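Proteins fold reproducibly. Look at a sample protein:
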Amino acid sequence: MGKSRLVVISTIFSLVIGLAAGSQLVASAKSKSSGKSKASKKSSSGKSVKSSKKSKTAKGGKSSRKQKSQRVGKKMSKKERAAARRAAAAARRRELERLAAIRRYDEMLRTQAALNIAADNVANEDPFVRSVSLSALGSRAGTVVVMDPNNGRVLSIVNQRMAIGSALKPCSTIKPFVALAALNEHLMDESAARTLRTCNCEMEMDDALAYSNNEYFQQLGRQLGLQKVNEYEREFGLGQVTGINLAGETPGHLPTDDSVESGRIYSHGDGVGLTAIQLASFVSTIANGGSLFQPQVVAPGHTFTPVLRRQIRIDPKNRTAVLEGMTGAVDYGTAKRAYDEEEHIAGKTGTCIGNGSWLGLFASFAGVDRPNLVVVVITQGSSSRGKYAADIAGQIYKGLASRYGTTASRPRRTTETEVQGVPTLGNR
């Protein structure tokens, strides 16, 4: 009986141990299976990523090569490359020929100017003023007029043939004419202080003149109309001979039709032809307050009798408005190269293409309150610009200061009442 129990207990113990060992084997098998599965997945995932990267690289390479091929275009043949080289060489030759033609034309202008200057009648000119003017102009193709705004006395004209016989496009020196006409016709109300608000260039007239704003004056001109602008230009002597006592003067011309123009008549002077002596006479009239004198060349020391062509009524407020713009041009605008801290200069530049080449103009006078010198400079050629003409005029004012002084030392300007006894063209 005792043995029998021992046998049963031993059998049960063996069964328990067997079951535990089996469980461990199963767990071990599962663990190994799981590890293999994870490794398989990892390996499969790695292969997939690598395969994807390779696929993307391959696709990217193909796309890049395709894009590069598209950028480069079809490979040129030897014949096509030779044709391209010939076309480039022809373009270079054309450009060199164009530049050479410009240089030849510039040289022709300079040669003609030198011949004209050599032929000037200098018998009655002031030799000192002429020397200063010649030095400032240098070898440029152009003309210089220096005169006294208070009586019309011409001190010197360098290149007389050009100054009195060539009707040139005025470029932006036409703008003071338009400004005076607009002010006199009350196009801007008093409270607006000369501000034009009918265009995209809202500004006051002084800045419009100083910076030479084209749209501003095109708008003014359109409002005035060509007939009205021409009336004022004739009043100031355009389209007429000045009567200077030198041979060969031309009257110039004014436009007759603005039906197809873009406004450039009033900003660039399209259709207008004026001479340097006409421009000097106009500036003199602004400087002296309204007296349009006949220019005369009379030798220093000889009796001089001023001849008044007509007295133009210029409202002092309008004159001041225009002078603010002209002095602004020199102080901070397009004519800064003429600026002199010891001289108060009023002027207007002009730059445009006309008469077959670039033109550079500067019309000016020195001493706003006590003027006694007018200087007009006009140059022609590929490098001509209004700012360079202003620079020439500035040199002339500096050169003449030793004789004519500066703003502080000059006598006050002639007034309208002081010229009433001066003979006019009708009662000389």
About this structure: The first strand starts at residue 141 and ends at 147. The chain has a mean pLDDT of 83. DSSP finds twelve helices and ten strands in the chain. Residues 20 and 310 are 137 Å apart (CA to CA).
